[in-house]
Amino acid sequence: MFPSREDLHEAKRQAVLRQAATSFNARGFHATSLADVAAGLGVTKAALYHYFPNKNALLAACFDHAMALCFACLDKGRAEGRNGRERLLLTLSGYIAQIIDDLSCAVVLLEEGALEADDYAKVIAERDRFEKALRGLVREGVKDGSIVPCDPKLVVFIMLGALNWVPKWYRPGGRWKPEQIAAALAEVFDRTLSSTPAAAMTTEVARISGRRAKARAAEPPAPASDPPDPGPPKRRGTRARTNGAAKAR
Amino acid sequence: MFPSREDLHEAKRQAVLRQAATSFNARGFHATSLADVAAGLGVTKAALYHYFPNKNALLAACFDHAMALCFACLDKGRAEGRNGRERLLLTLSGYIAQIIDDLSCAVVLLEEGALEADDYAKVIAERDRFEKALRGLVREGVKDGSIVPCDPKLVVFIMLGALNWVPKWYRPGGRWKPEQIAAALAEVFDRTLSSTPAAAMTTEVARISGRRAKARAAEPPAPASDPPDPGPPKRRGTRARTNGAAKAR
DNA sequence: TCCATATCCGACCGGGCGGTTAGATGACCG
DNA sequence: CGGTCATCTAACCGCCCGGTCGGATATGGA
User: Fold this and answer.
1) pLDDT at B219
2) Residue B13's domain spans which residues?
3) What pLDDT score was predicted for residue B243?
4) pLDDT, average across residues B75-102
5) Tell me, what CATH number does B69's domain have?
6) What percent of chain A has pLDDT over 70?
7) Are residues B46 and B73 both part of a single domain?
8) Closest partner CB to B199 (pick from A236, A239, A246)
9) What values do phi and psi take at B198, rounded to 5?
10) Are residues A17 and A91 in the same domain?
11) Which of B158, B236, B243 sits opposite A240 (nearest CB)?
């Protein structure tokens, strides 16, 4: 028999965690009782205590899981992107997929305050590390010319805000499929950051083709130059041209 | 004597509301007890019941107030902007100032679920109206050429997400002043939406000059054309040029 | 087969919170 | 001065929720 005793235990633990994350996301941490979580699994409250010592530990585990996923996205983005902008947008695409698809433990991000002091410190530290890494990608993009000069801290805040807000309006059965949303957001962020901003964006998210490369990664590998951004395209492509230096300093 | 009996009552009511909003924002609705709110005002729990029938009514009042401010911003933006993009960005600048400065009742937006059914329906209806209006501004901007073709619904979601996230990272005593943040966000959104995106943005929010026109409203009134966006500037200004049609459909 | 252990349940406890009530205080008005 | 009403408090109630406990059932190893 494959599933050993410990395997089963771990599997159930995961199930509890997922259910808890779902409930917390739906109604908020404080508004969710352990009885709610248990009911969602068809067991009673007391059963949960076989897998977690208390409610706060459950929340902490949600955060840990979410942060782990964040860093996984970061690694993937770093590996697959060809310049700073691509790496950043690939990372964020992954992040959003995680938020939408994965029953998203992540969005619990809203209730950090509910954590106990030491758990809180740990999560915040991790989150800071993640944000610092994103800012690093932005700086990288500015340096290699794929991203316009900007304040990395600010743009990262903006993007994370937009992403973390998604669960507020995303409707699982709705007309916008997760991949479409991820692609659309990447497109908008690309417009914001790219040193060669698009002249137009998709006018209907619902019409974005299913499989669509994110972060412009699949665009023709830029006829001319390579990894560092192609710079102003030869002429009248799908890119807008920015004018002048100014503001930057 | 100026303050009549009713005036005093109303003033205290407002004080209760502000305190409640502050507490709700800080710790969340469910995590805030009425005793907390009362303590913040130096009174006891029972006193609050002279001004609000129950805790939920308090929350509902917060939402009402917040939504009223939203529509005030909208009116102001509509009146002062010279094209769709300006009107939109002015509105959002006001919105953010409200969130940051005004002890922000608004951010309670996160706990809508805590409202009772009928209050909930009312707030959601108002919020939808507001979002619809913003989308209208986007469409307007696309039509008058100040905003690139895009999906209005999506970009509004993105912007509201970014804005509603601000309270998560804004620190009252910090290096970024509220006006700087408002200006910086407007600049980034401008980069995202403008049909003539800037070639660079501010690289340090903390260095943005105090009084700074928002939404590009104060830029030289565009030597040539008028209200509708100046279109691609004559040559090498501070604006990037976008290339081609493509994507739009 | 029998013991040890894991799993889960029903019942319970203690505390905290929303909400109520009775009464004390004081301001206004005739 | 006396009555009325607003204001606010202290004390209390009932409920719900996090957490615990003893016991029932099942599972697996020797």
Assistant:
1) 53
2) 1-52
3) 53
4) 93
5) 1.10.357.10
6) 80
7) no
8) A246
9) -65, 150
10) no
11) B243
| Mean pLDDT of all residues belonging to chain A | 85
**Same-domain check for residues B105 and B25:** no
Q: Are residues A238 and A166 in the same domain?
A: yes
Q: What is the pLDDT of residues A154-193, one digit of tens each?
A: 999 999 999 999 988 999 889 999 999 999 999 999 999 9
User: Is the model's pLDDT at A231 over the cut of 50?
Assistant: no
Do residues B117 and B222 both lie within one domain?
yes
Report H helices in B50-177. 55-80, 84-100, 117-144, 152-169
The shortest C-alpha distance from B6 to chain A (Å) reads: 36
Please give the Cα distance from B104 to B106 (Å, whole number). Answer: 5
Residue A194 banded pLDDT, cuts 50, 70, 90 = very high
Residue B167 has pLDDT above 80, yes or no: yes
Q: How far is the CA of A36 from the C1' of D22 (A)?
A: 24
Element (H, E) at A241: strand A240-242
* Residue B139, burial from CB neighbour count under 10 angstroms (0-12, 13-18, 19+): middle
With beta carbons less than 8 A apart as the criterion, state whether A111 and A31 touch: no
Whether any strand C atom is under 7 angstroms from the Cβ of A13: the reply reads no
Assign A242 to helix, strand or coil.
Answer: strand
For residues A140 and A177, state if they share a domain: yes
Domains of chain A: total: 2
**B46 CA, D13 C1': Å apart:** 14
CA gyration radius, chain B: 21
Comparing A25 with B187, the larger pLDDT belongs to B187
